[in-house]
Design goal:
8-stranded antiparallel beta sheet, 6 helices, 15 strands
């Protein structure tokens, strides 16, 4: 399995390009987030006919659960891979200013399922959130979230910003060393794919271009159309996942929201204070004892219960 830190170096922004020459160099990161399947990646050589032995050249074997391969290629080159007996073709689009691109090789999958077991009603009960991570909406965000889940980053994390009819936010690790380290790994923006925000949609939070780290938010039921229209105006607000099932009946509406928004809009926790060394040992339990928390998150198919959701 690739480490989160190793993958982070590959998560760069793609910028729109104008007309480019056919021989423009391009570095492409191919990532495999399949729970259990290796992927054989091939380069399609269109300089020879279909019967030529060099028509399809083996490029790499990409391990599951975050395995990746970096290909030094050229713009316009085509690649292929097979999942469940079906061959898929991909021609990477233009890269960023460094001629780099990021591709998730996910075939026709609908997404990767994550379950988060959470406390609700101010820690009175346990419930769960089922999350479908979409591989093509925002591949950098999707890959980062899956790696954080696999590393247990969200286990024990507080729902520190819960605003009814707006959003629920979380993502500051319980462990001081972990949250201090991971907040330095900023994620470059994904380019939007036209996915509209609606209740249950998840996105990374941020504070500027290429500023995403570990904090994510979920759009709450009852949000006004005006607020929905505002979400996505910032480049870092890009949907990458959605809560499965009926959001109105999900655990999302049972998470404690009595503290309201963070200052200056409400009396909830200040994110900067949670990042302090005593964020979880003193600040939250003393000042916000009713908060709900994530017990653990995991990729469902990786523990063999994918059919039970």
């Amino acid at each position: 399995m690739i480490s989160l830190r190793s993958l982070a170096v590959a998560l760069f922004t793609v910028v729109a390009s104008g007309l480019v020459a056919a021989d423009t160099p391009l570095s492409v990161i191919f990532v495999n987030q399949s729970p259990d399947k290796e992927i054989e990646l091939f380069w399609e050589n269109h300089n020879v006919d279909g019967e030529h032995p060099d028509r399809r050249r083996h490029e790499a074997t990409i391990a599951p659960r975050g395995g990746w391969h970096k290909s030094q290629t050229f713009l316009g080159h085509e690649f292929s891979y097979v999942i469940d007996g079906q061959r898929h073709y991909v021609t990477p689009p233009p890269g960023n200013v460094n001629d780099e691109q990021f591709i998730m090789v996910a075939g026709s999958t609908d997404g990767y399922r994550v379950r988060c077991e959470v406390s609700v009603n101010s820690q009175q009960y346990m419930d769960y959130l089922d999350i479908l991570v979409k591989p093509y909406w925002a591949p950098r965000a999707a890959s980062r979230f899956l790696e954080l889940v696999r590393n247990g980053y969200y286990d024990g994390v507080a729902f520190n910003r819960v605003v009814p009819n707006f959003l629920t936010q979380f993502g500051i690790a319980k462990d001081y060393v972990t949250r201090t380290r991971e907040r330095e790994l900023t994620l470059w923006d994904d380019f939007p794919k036209g996915v509209k925000f609606q209740p249950g949609i998840m996105s990374f939070a941020g504070s500027g271009h290429d500023s995403r780290t570990t904090e994510v938010f979920i759009v709450m039921p009852g949000i006004s159309q005006r607020k929905l229209d505002q979400l996505g105006e910032n480049t870092w607000e890009t949907p990458f996942a959605v809560i499965e099932g009926d959001v109105e009946k999900s655990a999302l509406k049972k998470i404690y929201s009595g503290y309201g928004d963070m200052p200056p809009w409400g009396k909830g926790p200040e994110s900067s204070r949670i990042y302090d060394v005593d964020g979880y040992t003193r600040y939250l339990p003393k000042n916000f004892p009713k908060l709900d928390y994530i017990d653990r998150c995991y990729v469902v198919d990786e523990v063999g219960i994918g059919e039970e959701l």
